[in-house]
């Protein structure tokens, strides 16, 4: 790798690509390569660019991401794929550094890294430590609800909310009603689940941010499991994580609402454990920026690891 590694962003005009470009703008430890508009759909120019770089960041639809990877013939090229094309591929390293103690090293040494999906980032962060600790059975019937800012729907949804017809854009909408959303397999694989979780996503009339929730009944968990055990497990798992924080029990008890926009513009992920002892119910929560830790921020975090930078 050169003194200043060359980073090619393929698809830098989409919501994720634009944010990555902004986050990397002004950095002096790397060089950015982007194609002029006339060449963005030219397969020859794109192949030349991707084979000339040190690390390629793919911000493309799934099919285009697969085509881009197939065009690589240089063994020196490393890839971060922000699409969902390779998130369950065992030959790709999953780009969630905080998932376990060895993941940072795996990402740092990887040739191929698949950036996590926005919703799966919150779900996996909450569920994986609990499953590994035996506090949540791998076959537990999980229901995951989440609301994202409309930027999660890409340029088309941004245009619907910010373009000429913005006044008629819906304030809130639930989608994925056929229950065939692409995220459950990713969540199941990386959270360590043996059963497909029930996942219901939605969009709100705000640009970015996510609030994800998972409800649990204590009577369905291993005998003796209480909310404090779940909190302690998460707190221990993320004790040294720079970008993941776990709300204290006192903070959770005092909270009256979750603001999905609270961490916008950051790469932070905030987890919470809320409980009602009388009813034996627990609510697991995750709040983060769908364009931050849910996409662009995570890609830059992974890039820095691959460049040998901070965790």
TrEMBL record:
Which EC number(s) does UniProt give?
Answer: 1.2.1.38
Gene3D superfamilies per the UniProt record, alphabetical: Dihydrodipicolinate Reductase, domain 2, NAD(P)-binding Rossmann-like Domain
Query: Matching PROSITE patterns, A to Z?
Result: ARGC (PS01224)
Q: According to its UniProt record, in which pathway does this protein act? A: Amino-acid biosynthesis; L-arginine biosynthesis; N(2)-acetyl-L-ornithine from L-glutamate: step 3/4
Record-level Gene Ontology MF annotations: N-acetyl-gamma-glutamyl-phosphate reductase activity
Q: Where is it mostly found?
A: cytoplasm
Q: What is this protein called?
A: N-acetyl-gamma-glutamyl-phosphate reductase
């Amino acid at each position: 790798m050169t003194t200043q590694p060359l980073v090619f962003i393929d698809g830098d005009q989409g919501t994720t690509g634009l944010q990555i470009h902004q986050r990397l703008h002004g950095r002096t430890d790397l060089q950015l390569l982007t194609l002029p508009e006339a060449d963005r759909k030219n397969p020859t120019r794109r192949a030349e660019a991707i084979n000339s770089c040190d690390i390629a960041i793919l911000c493309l639809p799934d099919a285009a991401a697969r085509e881009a990877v197939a065009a690589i013939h240089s063994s020196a090229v490393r890839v971060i794929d922000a699409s969902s094309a390779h998130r369950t591929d065992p030959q790709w390293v999953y780009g969630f550094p905080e998932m376990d103690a060895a993941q940072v090293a795996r990402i740092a040494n990887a040739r191929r890294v698949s950036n996590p999906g926005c919703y799966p980032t919150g779900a996996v962060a909450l569920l994986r430590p609990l499953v590994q600790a035996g506090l949540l059975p791998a076959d537990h019937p999980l229901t995951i609800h989440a609301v994202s800012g409309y930027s999660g729907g890409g340029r088309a949804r941004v245009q619907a909310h910010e373009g000429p017809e913005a006044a008629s854009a819906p304030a809130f909408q639930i989608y994925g009603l056929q229950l065939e959303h692409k995220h459950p397999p990713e969540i199941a694989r990386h959270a360590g689940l043996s059963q497909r979780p029930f996942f219901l996503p939605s969009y709100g009339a705000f640009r970015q941010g996510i609030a994800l929730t998972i409800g649990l009944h204590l009577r369905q968990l291993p005998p003796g499991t209480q909310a404090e055990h779940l909190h302690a497990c998460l707190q221990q798992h993320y004790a040294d994580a720079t970008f993941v924080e776990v709300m204290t029990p006192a903070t959770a008890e005092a909270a009256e609402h979750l603001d999905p926009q609270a961490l916008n513009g950051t790469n932070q992920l905030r987890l919470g454990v809320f409980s009602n002892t009388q009813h034996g119910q627990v609510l697991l929560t995750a709040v983060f920026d769908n364009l931050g830790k849910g996409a662009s921020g995570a890609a830059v975090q992974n890039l820095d690891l691959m460049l040998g930078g901070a965790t």
